[in-house]
Every structure is written in structure tokens, then in C-alpha cells.
Design goal:
Helices cover about 25% and strands about 25% of the residues. By secondary structure, it is α/β, with parallel strands linked by helices. The chain has a 9-stranded mixed beta sheet with strand order 3-1-2-4-5-6-7-8-9. The two termini are about 30 Å apart.
Length: about 220
């Protein structure tokens, strides 16, 4: 319960069932809970519609809607879900309900209070995003092998930056690493060839939902 005595609530852009399009869970039927609002403005953002709008839902309403879809995997995403403090309670309650829960977060906010049963998919913003100065580097010390670090790359300069960060901070020892090309900016085959040439210890990924449907799930 909130301090006021009212049930905890969150601003929700959408809740929908789709295939997970990214991370090591790619291809799994997943319920997506997209929270409204984000303090970042990455230049290549493909979910700007989640910056505002949505509707207020209590945690019980969210849990009921998630359960209605009848699948185990749940991804809490945004926007930036951690910008709403009640997200922490939602994550824990989803775990308590028996779901396998992942959190997609920009990496600009502290992940330390997230329930450790949650797999945290943390972006590291490359310079091409326009938001690399927002990276909360202290998050790296909190990562476990159950978490993942994602790099969305728009050009060779972003790639070189990511390669340098991985080497200097020995990120491959922390958790799985994911490389994604920005759609319509960096050809997927080009990024794949760079990874192979450098033998980088990363997982190349495309957004499966865009391959299948050409759009963001739920839109």
C-alpha cells in the first residue's frame, strides 16, 4: 500500500502478448508491460509514443491483465520503467506470482533496488544515442550473470566506443553482452562483420518483432 492508504498504481502505455524480440529470451511468448514516461531522449528511440499518455492502473489490475494472457514470461519495459517508483513493487509481485520476469532499463537509473529474481536488461548508451552522458556506471558493479548489457549502435564510432568499454571494464566477465544495430542507420550485416573480425564476446541481435511484423509490438 502507498503511504496515503491508496493502492500502488502505475501509468501504463500498454500491456500485450508477443514474442520476445531481443535478449537471450528471444522468440519466447512474453507479456509486455510498457510503462509510460522516460527521462531520456535517445535520437533513435522507436517507442517515443510511450513518453506520455497511457492510463493509470493499480498493481492488482496489472497483475490480472498479465495473468489473463496465460504465459510465464513477462517483460517490464518503457519508456523507462524505473522512473516510476512503484515499478519496484510490480516487479516483485510479478515474481511472487510465478512469472519469469525481465526488466528493460535505459541504464541511467540505479538498478540496485530491483528484486534479484528479475533479469535486468541494462542499456549502455553509446555516443550516437545523444545520451551517453546519462550512463549510471555504478550499475556495472551490481550486475550478475543473470543480467544482460545491451549496446544499440548507430555507426562505426559507436562500435569502437562499445569495444573499448568492453575491454577496459572487462564487461564480458560480468554478464552476457548484446549488440544491436539501429534500424535504417547501421546495416545488420556490417555490424555482424565487425563483430566477427574482432572476435568480440557478444551476442549479435536483431529486433525479431520487426523482422516478423515490421513494427513495435502492440502498435
Amino acid at each position: 500500500m502507498a503511504d496515503s492508504g491508496r493502492p500502488l498504481a502505475l501509468r501504463i502505455s500498454e500491456i500485450f502478448l508477443s514474442l520476445q524480440g531481443e535478449s537471450s529470451r528471444v522468440g519466447l511468448p512474453t507479456v509486455f508491460v510498457r510503462l509510460t514516461g522516460c527521462p531520456l531522449r535517445c535520437v533513435w528511440c522507436d517507442t517515443a509514443y510511450a513518453f506520455s499518455g497511457g492510463r493509470t492502473m493499480s498493481l492488482n489490475e496489472i497483475l490480472t491483465e498479465v495473468a489473463r494472457h496465460g504465459v510465464r514470461h513477462v517483460c517490464v519495459t518503457g519508456g523507462e520503467p524505473l522512473a516510476q517508483p512503484a515499478c519496484l513493487a510490480l516487479l516483485s509481485q510479478l515474481c511472487d506470482a510465478g512469472h519469469a520476469v525481465s526488466l528493460e532499463t535505459s541504464g541511467a537509473l540505479d538498478i540496485g533496488a530491483v528484486d534479484r529474481r528479475v533479469s535486468r536488461i541494462v542499456d549502455l548508451k553509446a555516443p550516437g544515442s545523444g545520451e551517453s552522458h546519462r550512463n549510471h556506471w555504478a550499475n556495472l558493479s551490481q550486475l550478475t550473470p543473470d543480467d544482460e548489457l545491451k549496446f544499440v549502435l548507430s555507426d562505426r564510432a559507436d562500435y569502437e566506443w562499445a569495444r573499448q568499454v568492453i575491454g577496459e571494464r572487462q564487461l564480458a566477465k560480468l554478464c552476457p553482452l548484446l549488440f544491436s544495430p539501429v534500424a535504417d542507420q547501421l546495416p545488420a550485416t556490417t555490424l555482424a562483420e565487425w563483430i566477427l573480425a574482432d572476435r568480440l564476446p557478444v551476442r549479435f541481435q536483431l529486433q525479431l518483432h520487426k523482422v516478423l511484423w515490421g513494427k513495435i509490438p502492440g502498435k
